[in-house]
Write a structure and sequence with these properties.
By secondary structure, the protein is of the alpha/beta class. It has six helices and six strands, in the order E-H-E-H-H-E-H-E-H-E-E-H. Strand 4, helix 5 and strand 5 form a beta-alpha-beta unit.
């Protein structure tokens, strides 16, 4: 018989596009510290660039904000943009595994201590954040 275990809920990934979105999401997430983080729209790193995400996060995320992991920039298949994100110090980056140059970016990310993943987890739009927060068990943070 396997003993009963309580697994923490998966993190809430809130998709944000601008300062207003990010601030609203952070205010909601602050009610349950450590339960979620921010994520860019799919492929936004490729067309808006890592500098956009870096500036957006610098304007909104204070060092004392309790996110479960660094905000995530989705670069789609743009390995050059993902490498740029790593160099800018963006803490978590998504790059498609089949992107040319994936292995090189993975090496850069490992050296810099940046989380690089090839899979985008399900995210929720800001408009559904309140519903997602209500579904968390009351025992979470």
């Amino acid at each position: 018989m396997i003993p009963s275990q309580t697994c923490p809920p998966p993190p809430i990934l809130v998709e944000v596009f601008d300062v207003a979105d990010a601030r609203q999401a952070l205010a909601a997430l602050s009610t349950r510290p450590g339960t979620g983080t921010l994520i860019s729209p799919p492929g936004a790193g490729a067309y808006l660039g890592p500098a956009w995400w870096h500036a957006l996060m610098a304007a909104c995320v204070a060092p004392d904000v309790a996110l479960c992991m660094p905000p995530i920039l989705d670069c789609g298949v743009a390995a050059g943009r993902a490498a740029e994100a790593v160099r800018l110090g963006i803490g978590a980056v998504i790059l498609a595994r089949h992107a040319p140059g994936f292995d090189s970016v993975a090496a850069l990310a490992a050296e810099a201590g940046v989380l690089l993943t090839d899979t985008r987890a399900p995210s929720i739009p800001l408009v559904r954040l309140e519903d997602a927060m209500r579904q968390l068990p009351s025992s979470v943070a």
